[in-house]
Amino acid sequence: MAYFLIVTIFLAIAYYPEKYQFFAENISNLGAFESRLFSPNTTSMYIFIVGFGICGAMALTVAILYFFNRYLHSWYIKGPLAIVLALGAAGVAIPKDHDLSILHIAGAAMFIGGFAAFNAYLQITSSYRKHIKKEVEVSRADTIWDIFLSVVVLVILLGYFTIFALDWLNIGAAFLGPVFQKVIVFAEILALYFIDNKDV
Length: 200
Known about the structure:
200 residues; mainly alpha; globular
């Protein structure tokens, strides 16, 4: 799902009707009816809707797999988190300038927050398995790297909700919202890449 999300975002950027201001515009602008400068945004919007719809379907499939395969490690945590991701993706797929924009905003919080929470849980359980339970032999460098990734995803999770709240209230560091949003998405995807398959 993570890699499909990257493809969706960059395809939507490619078909955005004007130059997408990467550090000034939210990702949500790609899925709006109109661009920032009020141009029709039909192609980019459909790419965005279909892409997030597919991401939501993937997350729902993962949740179902966890719920029906209860021998999987921590299915009771990962399953509900995957449901949050699926619902979040469905909300994000609603254009931000639609009458139901509140569902888009809630979806964005659920999707990115759920993605960060899911990743943080995977990082922490992976570190616990390797360093506390010592199920596998790891080097000092691996230990430092695992701790670093765990701290990064936790800081990102807390930072996201702080920036989201400030952006929602239009105070303080709200201008950081679009930048931080992208940092979160790409950092979480990078961190997910380093998770052992056994921990997923």
